[in-house]
Design brief:
The radius of gyration is 32 Å and the shape is elongated. Helix 3 (58-67) packs parallel to helix 5 (94-113) and helix 4 runs antiparallel to helix 5. Strand 3 and strand 4 (157-164) form a beta hairpin. The protein has helices at 5-28, 35-55, 58-67, 75-89, 94-113, 303-311; strands at 116-125, 134-137, 150-152, 157-164, 169-173, 180-185, 191-197, 200-206, 218-221, 235-242, 251-257, 266-272. By secondary structure, it is of the alpha+beta class.
């Protein structure tokens, strides 16, 4: 609009009208005549505001910050700095605290193993292709995700990527009967293969039928050629039962997985393998045995017995 006398008069008139409406609105209170217009504006612009709010949601920003974790050098320090930033952004409600705890644990796990990860949220459970134990995550090819990448969370192995779309990916969980991963026993280095059994413990066949194994022993991933589909050192689970050795070529174990497959929320896709095998360094600290209290019972002679002793005649 050209700066003319008419345009200036129009501007002054619009400002006067605006002040008049504000005055009427304030004096009208809940019965304001412009309340209908306000509601109409809320209807139109409300969805836009929700979209903007979602864009700056602290949880969304937190997961985005994890996704941008990619530098290999000084990764532990970088992840700790990101974790501090995430804590500052997240809210204080119970939902946020729970997710913050998951993010914190996953960052520390990735730091110990020197894994480069892309953080993701679980947006669906059980794919449409059948009764497989799968989840859908909100990252895909545009985020650098490829088929046969390892998926973990703060507890340990979750599964592997099987299908990749532009913005989402399907993950086959380690509990699925079609899932198999090479494993290595902590300390003894005995190798085997773990298979999913649905909601039951993982079944592990050790290659050494005479291997010495006991309840409570722990396993990690052995790793694959070129680190696909599995990177080494990811915690798998704890031995819960050992089948008696029958002199066969293999030995069967049953392992309780670290990851809880029925309550997955925040996970990480390993997009960059560590330079060297982290071995057992990613495993959580072993629980300390609870000391069992010792009760000492001291028997003291009763007053009645003492009196009887004093009343006995001398021989």
């Amino acid at each position: 609009m050209r700066d003319t006398r008419e345009s200036r008069l129009l501007l002054v008139l619009l400002i006067a009208i605006a002040f008049a409406l504000i005055t009427v609105d304030i004096r009208g209170g809940e019965d304001s005549p412009v309340d209908g217009a306000r509601q109409a504006a809320a209807t139109v612009f409300g969805p836009i505001e929700s979209g903007v709010s979602a864009g700056v949601d602290p949880i969304g920003n937190a997961v985005s910050a994890v996704r941008d974790s990619g530098a290999r050098h000084d990764r532990l320090k970088l992840l700790e700095e990101e974790n501090a930033a995430l804590k500052a952004r997240l809210g204080s409600d119970d939902r946020s605290r729970s997710r913050l705890k998951q993010l914190d644990k996953m960052l520390k796990t990735a730091g110990r193993g020197q894994y480069g990860i892309k953080g993701a949220e679980v947006i669906a459970i059980g794919a449409a292709q059948g009764f497989s134990w799968t989840i859908t995550i909100d990252v895909g090819a545009r985020d650098g995700i490829k088929r046969d990448m390892t998926v973990l969370n703060g507890d340990g192995l979750v599964g592997r990527v099987t299908t990749v779309g532009p913005d989402t990916a399907t993950v086959l969980l380690a509990s699925d009967p079609d899932f198999t991963v090479g494993t290595r026993m902590e300390s003894s280095d005995e190798l085997g293969f773990a298979s999913g059994q649905g909601d039951r413990p993982l079944r592990v066949e050790l290659l050494n039928g005479k291997a010495e194994v006991k309840k409570g022993d722990r396993l990690v991933t052995f790793g694959s050629q070129a680190d696909r589909p599995f990177v080494p050192g990811v915690p798998v689970g704890v031995v819960s039962r050992v089948d008696p050795s029958g002199g066969g070529l293999t030995r069967t174990l049953y392992v309780t997985p670290y990851a809880g497959f029925s309550k997955l929320d925040i996970v990480g896709v390993v997009v960059e393998a560590p330079k060297k095998d982290p071995r057992d360094t990613v495993l959580p600290p072993k629980p300390k045995p609870t000391p069992r209290p010792t009760v000492t019972v001291t028997v003291t002679p009763s007053a009645e017995a003492s009196a009887d002793g004093q009343n006995q005649p001398e021989q």
